[in-house]
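Handout, section B. The chain below has 287 residues.
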Amino acid sequence: MIIWPESLIREIAKKRVIFFLGSGVSASATSNDGEKTPTWGEFLELALNLVKTPEIQEEIRILIKNRNYLLALQAIKEQSIPQDYTALLEKQFNNHKIKAGKLHEHIFYLDQNIVITTNFDRIYDKYCDYFGEGSYKTLSYYSNGIGDTIRSDNRLIIKAHGCINEPEKMIFTRYEYHNAKQKHTQFYDILKALFITHTCIFIGCGMEDPDILLTLEDVKISSSNTFPHYFISLIGSSSSIEKRNLENNYNIKALEYGPSHEDLIEAIGNLREEVENYKALHGIINN
């Protein structure tokens, strides 16, 4: 079980933290008949069936095995019939039967002003719309007014890779990454500023996103390492070399839970309890 740093508990209690949600958070939610939103790796395995040339399919499978996900998906998209590819996106990331689970609830009640997510689905967005009583606003990387919303009274959900509502603007392949970086430089400037001014906790994320890592690398070079960011990781999923790399080059410390993925829900639930206890002890009342 994770021993949460007291400094991190204090930062959350004072609403100076950004939660960064990856596909592992969405994968914790299910429909009544057990359907789930796929993780990155699971989606790639499904999408691989769209490739009909065995030799190319095997090449892509090697890319997936080596966790070269962006290039793998770029190849899949290029080799697929466009209508079939779009239909697969809709089926996997726009399943209205899947409802938010306990992990989404814990994150919601930890109540930070900004949540960033690379998830295309709207599971957490809908939960916040329903329980947030109009206090949440959801914007994508290409939206105008992200800076203004950060300074407003709204709680903000930033869809860093876009949303299934506009699949043509989703960032899912290497080409789409490069295109977004060129066209939406202001968003990445804002992202860098947020990483400088807040502690970020990555939940349910694989730390392979090149945009995020490059931004964090810039932040580490230009700012103090006094306050690290945190990566919530299944025990044994990252080697000691990978963890040292994250800490030395990106100022990210791994906090490990386990032994199973289901233990993440209990770990974040314990964090929620510790934050509530800290608030009660220090008389902190958030709006």
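Note. The mean pLDDT is 92. Compare this with the example in section A.
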